[in-house]
User: Fold Rhodanese-like domain-containing protein from Rubritalea tangerina.
Amino acid sequence: MKWILQSVVFVVISAIFAVGTFLVLGGPDRTVPCVQAEMKDVHVCLETVLVDWQGDVLWVDARSRAEFERERLAGALLIPENDADNQLAVPIHMEKIGMAGVNGQKLVVYCATDACGSSEFVAKKIRDTGFHSEVYILHGGWKAIRADADRLTTEQGK
Assistant:
């Protein structure tokens, strides 16, 4: 019975210290670390998009339709990896991609995380069409966007 009481006391003391640490230091840092100088040529940090490019990009969402429907960046095109060939054949997509190039906007493709690979595939498919030459892949993907959501406009699925 004594060990149960000791365990409860230990848990309570640990919880007090955890809450105290949270109050003093704040919540966990959820940002996605990124140093533009260390990125491959076609990869881009969210900070570069928001500060250097002032957010003047056309976002291309390479996640699944279900993820896109739950939440997405306002104005983003949905071109999921498993349907990239078909989606890039849709005239409205090609028109928006072409107009982004004419207007000097860069294309930034993102998927769920930095390691998902969908954005690499979709970005290559877009480059291969020849409709736009400045196609970048967002480092950290949707995870980076969610971590910095206060500076981006997202919308819920319809």
